[in-house]
Amino acid sequence: MIGTEKTLKARLLLPCLIVAILLTGCNTLPAESEKHAEYSSLGDPQAALSYSTAFPITSAQEAILRGDAAVAKGDLDRALFEYIRALEKEGADPEILYKVGRVHLARGDTRRAEVAFFMVLKEMPDHAGGLTEVGIIRMRHRDHPSAQSFLSRALQVTPKSSRIFNALGVLEDMQKNHPQAQSNYASAIALDGRNPLYLNNLGYSHYQMGDLINAEKAFVDALRLDPGYERAWRNLALVYAKSRRYSEALEAFGKTEQDYQAYNDVGYVAMVTGRYADAQRFFEEAIRLSPMYYELAESNAKRLVVLQQTAPAAIAQPVETGG
Length: 323
What we know:
Layout: H1 2-28, H2 32-40, H3 45-50, H4 60-73, H5 76-90, H6 94-107, H7 110-123, H8 128-140, H9 144-157, H10 162-174, H11 178-191, H12 196-209, H13 212-225, H14 230-242, H15 246-253, H16 259-272, H17 276-289, H18 295-310
Helix pairs in contact: 4-5, 5-6, 6-7, 7-8, 8-9, 9-10, 10-11, 10-12, 11-12, 12-13, 12-14, 13-14, 14-15, 15-16, 16-17, 16-18, 17-18
């Protein structure tokens, strides 16, 4: 009888144990739909809808190739759709996730880009690209300690990356550590001397320190590499205006804007450096050149009147106006 009871209990418990084991297995292994939902959250619903009738893919590699081709054509929505499909086939591949993050950056979606890059680092903590991009995003958010940590780790992985040295230079400039910033820019230029961005950043670092001679040299070098580099022209114009080389400043500003805008900008530099008579002359010329349209010059001229009434005639301390 006792044996019969034990046998009966065993028969009753066995189905329960099987059910429990099956339920446990479902908890540890996410359903396919849940796995896909994780990756679809990195995508764009509108893009997914637009390409919902796309031909099926047979492999993740096929989707990657389609995504790369879309990037080359500038079709970022299609690229994102294809990379998400690749993830759904392949799983959490760090290189595919990195491509997703880069597409989001190009689309201006920093939040999703950062999510994708953190997923990269979850799969591969020493992924240089993921570390670099997170560091740059953290820097843009003014989270300097976190940015320093990620960029330094990235440099340990790829010690000859001009891009990382440049990013570290920008980070140091943001914290007013200009000599260290210039050292980083110099390292970037040594690795890639054909990139005008690094020379422009080096010049602006010198400009922030008030070293107009070395700032001018760096901006001129940047323009030798890229004569159409608008930011370098504007920064060079700032150097000329602060040095009272007004004709050269007007010519440099004129490379990127209308003549009345150039006169206003030269006047603004003169105003913030305390040269009020010069500022008034340039504002008046800006207004004369465009009396019906150029309201900014009139606003600056009114501000100048207030400054002339309240500030001493001595030259004020330099103030940055752009970069």
